[in-house]
Amino acid sequence: MNYPDSVQFLYALGNELKSAKFGLERMARLAASIGFPNRIIHVAGTNGKGSTCAIIESGLRAAGLRTGLFTSPHLIEPTERIRIEGIPVSADEFTSAFGRVHELAERLIDAGEIDQHPTYFETVFAMALQLFREKSVDVTVLEVGLGGRLDATNVVEPELCVITPIDFDHERFLGNTIESIAAEKAGIIKSGVPVVMAPQRSKAEEIVRGRADRLIPAWMADTVAVRREGSSISSHGLVMECNLAGRHQITNALTAATALDAFGVSREAIGKGVASARWPGRLERIHRNPELIVDGAHNPAGALALADYVGEFYPDPRPVLIFGAMRDKSVEEMAALLFPKFREVIVTAPAQQRALVPETFLGMVDHAAISSAPHLAEAIARAGSAETIFISGSLFLVGEAIASQSLH
Predict the structure, then answer these.
(1) Helix (H) or strand (E) holding 217
(2) Range of the domain at 297
């Protein structure tokens, strides 16, 4: 089987969200047959998980450790989900790992040890475990897929848990209160395992504190200088240059730095790791003249962070926003937070079955200058002579934008 065939098989397993199976039995059996990496840092939360994972992984590499990083979703290619020493695995490595996991799954099904083929997410996570063991990584950083308690990644025994800010998202699966969502996120906490916690809403903090035997609050900033494309942060006697844009990345950088410190990484390596961390698709400039900036703000907390960034650095003239989202997202709330920061909004649809039809937006949101375009290319063309264009609302749309620019 070649790489396109393996990817097609994964897609054929069904929509990643709709086909998710919330339980650990199948994944536990599959993972036990593969084996686990030696040292694991497990990261859950609502927003900032990917950025925090990327900074932690960068700091571990700066300390001379061989790293594995598992995140989701991907922007362009599924290979992005599995990284070794900061680099996505190759198509050949991905294909080989898929073949071995698929063959193992078939054997376990035949033996009656699992009920059916692992889901999309379970399969790729199992592939990551396979590759991390095969490549002899020293430390693995795992990002939870959805929730935490019943997420496929929760079969691991981590050395450190990290909880990023908890907010509303995926309420259909995780509950519609902060307490219920926090309980699911905090489900990754294991007895005796230290927990680094980012600043939280009071009710979420209460849940996390109640689950943790040893809680380590994230570092607080002494001083901060925020730039359009990053920040300088002073905390605990360490000055860190963070090149991830947006004030919200200060929280992620401080949480990651705290985790690295708790893991025994030197202050020098922490500083180097924070400075060298990159995380595509988050307030990332992908083109100049016009300036195209993509940001995967896909829930209200993300929309608020983006709105704050635009208000701080692009107040006049206000830029244009191209926005597309999935049907299961809190679109009206996101629009209320985000759209007033832009002089014009063009709504479109990512090339996904779950995408909200652009015309539906027009009856849901109110903006003085809003129009629709059937796809991203037309939306960009319609933005015309705008000096700055933001593309946001869905990581799928962000991925399309990055892929389209790579072809130019």
Answers:
(1) strand 215-217
(2) 284-406
| 48 and 197 within one domain | yes
Q: What is the model's pTM?
A: 0.95
Considering the domain architecture, whether residues 252 and 354 belong to the same structural domain is answered as no
219 with 319, same domain: the answer is no
Last residue of a domain, one of 248, 276, 304: 276
Instruction: Out of 276, 306, 327, pick the residue that ends a domain.
Output: 276
Tell me the H-state helices in 150-241: 171-174, 178-185, 202-211
CATH code: domain of residue 377? 3.90.190.20
Cα distance between residue 103 and residue 348, in whole Å: 40
Write the CB contacts of 34 (distance below 8 Å, at least 6 apart in sequence): 101, 104, 126, 129, 130, 133
* DSSP three-state, residue 233: strand
Pair 11, 136 in one domain: yes
The domain total for the chain is: 2
Same domain, 53 and 175: yes
Instruction: Choose among 32, 19, 304: nearest CA to 168.
Output: 304
How would you write the pLDDT of the chain (408 residues) with one tens digit per residue?
899 999 999 999 976 555 556 679 999 999 999 999 989 999 999 999 999 999 999 999 999 999 999 999 999 999 999 999 999 999 999 999 999 999 999 999 999 999 999 999 999 999 999 999 999 999 999 999 989 999 999 999 999 999 999 988 766 778 779 999 999 999 999 999 999 999 999 999 999 999 999 999 999 999 999 999 999 999 999 999 999 999 999 999 999 999 999 999 999 999 999 999 999 999 999 999 899 999 999 889 899 999 999 999 999 899 999 999 988 788 889 999 999 999 999 999 998 888 898 888 777 777 768 999 999 999 999 998 899 999 999 999 999 999 988 655
Which residue type is seen at 73?
P
155 neighbors 55 (Cβ within 8 angstroms): no
Domain of 145: which CATH number?
Answer: 3.40.1190.10
Are 146 and 20 spatial neighbours (Cβ–Cβ below 8 Å)? Answer: yes
